[in-house]
Amino acid sequence: MRAFALLLSLSMGKALACGYCVEDKIASTYDHASVTRAVGIGHHVVFFHLDGPVPQQDAARRALVAAAESVPGVDRGSVRVALDTFTLSLAFDPRRTSLAALQGALDARLASRKLSAFPLRVIERSGELKEAAARQQ
What distance in Å separates the CA atoms of residue 99 and residue 64, rounded to the nearest whole number? Predict the structure, then answer.
């Protein structure tokens, strides 16, 4: 009976950090220093779910970073990608681009890879993590 309880508790621990819930996705690309820097200069940080075939290769990660950093308004060096959770985060200047425009430009750059980005959460101020509104069509 004890062995069963131990086995059950070990398997539950893995299920709690599966990478599919929004919190796990955010945690996989969250960088406190980057967020602090961005918020300190009035920029926002957005966390995206990547939808489509995401290759589990370092070359794919580098290509995703380059694509995101090429979007106008995105802070260079702020892009984080977690291939295992299909998550991308970045900081951007809301005075230069809106979230909707940023998502549209990012989707255009990801289209050749058959990927699209869906915003999960946005940090606009220190200590604030809010739901991302769906892009207006």
Answer: 18
